[in-house]
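Much of what follows relies on a compact textual record of a protein's fold. The record below shows the convention in full:
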Amino acid sequence: MLSLRFSAYRDPDIYNDHLLGLLKLNDAAPLRVIEAYEKRETPESIVVATAGGSRYEIARYCPHAGAALDNAPIEGHILTCLNHHYRFDLDSGKCLDGNCSLRTKKLI
């Protein structure tokens, strides 16, 4: 039997669920399940505020892996999930690190 040996590194070294799924599973069906899980909507909401005083109503749980966002740090208008460090733009809800989006609404 032939052995495949290689080394890999990430720069920056940040957890990436898609890469892990590809390396562990290498199967399209489980990857589709992961993507469906990440794109689901949760009905619960919380209100967060930026240092500049902007307030947003957002989904209570991270769309990536379901972590609570109650204590997630906000820098500028970027919220960072404490679980896997996925970053979300509070204005658009767009995830800057993955294939999901956060339900967000700016409050007046």
Residues 51 and 76 are 7 Å apart (CA to CA). The longest strand covers residues 45-49. The helical segments are 17-24, 28-38. The first helix runs from residue 17 to 24.
